[in-house]
Write a structure and sequence with these properties.
Blueprint: E1 2-6, H1 10-20, E2 25-30, H2 38-41, E3 45-47, H3 53-69, E4 78-79, E5 82-87, H4 91-106, E6 111-114, H5 116-122, E7 131-137, E8 140-142, H6 145-158, E9 162-165, E10 169-172, E11 177-180, E12 196-197, E13 200-203, H7 209-215, E14 223-232, H8 236-240, E15 244-247, E16 252-257, E17 260-265, H9 283-297, E18 303-313, E19 320-325, E20 328-332, H10 338-353
This protein binds flavin-adenine dinucleotide (FAD).
């Protein structure tokens, strides 16, 4: 079976690897560099703390594979617990945490409630005084997302996939063919058709997925939205016992990082143009994040880098993964959780292309494609 994968982010390279090792003939097209788009801008927070059965399954499989791959190439999965909490007085989110944790535990996730005294003892670097309800996920870690994409690209090549970087393509949905967007010959076939034919095309083009499919006349309900992150210095003694954490009331997260720490939030709840958006972080984001870090950590160092990137929303916050029409597959719409699930999502996308759909819950044909919906923050627990 000959398969084109469009997109060399974490999901596309994983799918290319899983297709190639199952003997598909794979060509992956990436218009920039491997991991150069959203994947390279991700925070690298990894956990399996999901309550819905399919999400918990995907999360568990992703953590299992991250651990398997750890140590290969430059990729390293660093075990780090993940704490999420609602502050005192935020009853709405406190109830949500109270409700989620037993459901996650029922699905076999290693999660438990923790009170501020437990947290203070275990993670003294952080001020937990205003915490109302908190939970800790133990099956969690952190990494450099680019190192994962590079490793999986290398593994895909070793398994026989051909990776064509610096090649932007369009698709012909009716002929299941791929052509270069610049009109140059991309290895056109001898049968008179313009594009290069495949048995299947997997579109894993991140924020460009909707536009690419729309150009081929296939509407999908996806909306890219902008999020922001920064790194800042932090004393080694504080970094040593810093968990990853998400303040659900404040809507921001932080994690240890080689620079000290990495923190982010900044979801713009509006659709972004994937070809025209501001790559730098906003001044206001940096100022607000500094205040939040000062409140949570006391002292920390100067902001080192700050940036923005795109995530992709769907109407029901669940991904679109599977066949859209004969031979045309999609894998996108991760709502800010694409990197941490990529080892499982890429694998599932590969299996769907090969005819066995392990995630029917994410069937993209559940939508018409023209649904109206609002962008809501990815990590929000509501
Ligand atoms: C600041 C920030 C922090 C984040 N933190 C986390 C986190 O901690 N954990 C987490 O799970 N997720 C996080 N995310 C989300 C995560 O980055 C994405 O969900 C994930 O990287 C998506 O991977 P992908 O492979 O689907 O898409 P991408 O990495 O965007 O890859 C798609 C690729 O397709 C290519 N492409 C597009 N159009 C074409 C075309 N026509 N021809 C050829 N190639 C094309 C693009 O160049 C791109 O490289 C974060 C995102 C941002 C911006």
């Amino acid at each position: 079976m000959r398969v084109a994968v469009i997109g060399g982010g974490a999901v596309g390279v994983t799918a290319a690897y899983d297709l190639a090792r199952r003997d598909a003939e794979v060509v992956l097209y990436e218009k920039g560099e491997i991991g150069g788009a959203s994947t390279g801008r991700a925070a690298g927070i990894l956990y399996d703390a999901f309550a819905a059965p399919e999400d918990a399954r995907v999360g568990a499989r992703a953590m299992e594979r991250f651990r398997q791959f750890s140590g290969e190439g430059d990729f390293e999965f660093r075990e780090t617990p993940y704490v999420w909490f609602a502050r005192e007085g935020d009853e709405k989110r406190a109830d949500l945490v109270r409700e989620q944790v037993p459901r996650m535990a029922e699905r076999g996730r290693d999660v438990s409630f923790a009170d501020p005294a437990d947290l203070r003892e275990r993670f003294p670097a952080i001020d937990w005084d205003d915490v109302g309800v908190a939970a800790v996920a133990e099956n969690a870690g952190r990494t450099d997302p680019g190192s994962y994409a590079d490793l999986l690209a290398e593994k895909a090549r070793e398994a026989g996939a051909e990776l064509r970087t610096g090649v932007e393509v369009r698709i012909d949905a009716d002929d299941v063919a791929v052509e270069r967007a610049d009109g140059e010959d991309g290895g056109a076939p001898a049968d008179g058709r313009e594009g290069e034919p495949f048995d299947a095309i997997l579109v894993a083009a991140g924020a460009h997925t909707k536009r690419l499919l729309a150009m081929a006349g296939v509407p999908v309900p996806l909306k890219p939205y902008r999020v922001q992150a920064l790194t800042a210095g932090l004393a080694d003694r504080k970094r040593a016992d810093l968990p990853m954490c998400y303040d659900a009331t404040g809507g921001y997260y932080l994690r240890p990082h080689p620079a000290g720490l990495l923190a982010g939030d900044g979801t713009e709840e509006v659709e972004s143009d994937p070809d025209d958006w501001k790559r730098d972080a906003d001044r206001e984001f940096r100022a607000v994040t500094r205040d939040r870090l000062a409140r949570r950590l006391g002292e920390f160092g100067a902001v080192r880098e700050s940036w923005a990137g795109l995530c992709v929303a769907t109407p029901d916050r669940d991904p679109l993964l599977g066949e859209l029409r004969d031979g045309l597959h999609v894998a996108a719409g991760w709502q800010g959780h694409g990197f941490m699930r990529s080892p499982a999502l890429g694998e599932a996308a590969a299996e769907a292309v090969l005819g066995d759909n392990p995630l029917p819950e994410f069937d993209p044909t559940r939508f018409e494609g023209d649904e109206e919906f609002d962008v809501v923050e990815g990590m929000a627990i509501e």
